[in-house]
């Protein structure tokens, strides 16, 4: 009985350091960085696995990481910028592969629409 307990304790001790938030099985952690020169307010990220409010985010700032059961390289994002509601809206996730467990950053910027009328949010994924 003692050798079994000793082996179980050794396996547990060796396995724990590898199981951090960053590599937790099934865990995807997302933060948002504001790459624009304008502050964001009411920032919300919507994914099929859930919706998370990131609140306000100043120019150049990054939010805290938030857990998601599943995420993709892009998401629906809504933010208020200078009293204007802007969004990044994907069509769907057909054919997309979920992100592997880890920490990721959605980098958001404000860009002019192709028509020259109005603005929208652009989104780029970083994996630090």
TrEMBL record:
Domain of life: Bacteria
Species classification: Bacteria, Pseudomonadati, Bacteroidota, Cytophagia, Cytophagales
Annotated signal peptide: 1-20
Entry keywords, A to Z: Signal
Protein name, UniProt field: DUF4625 domain-containing protein
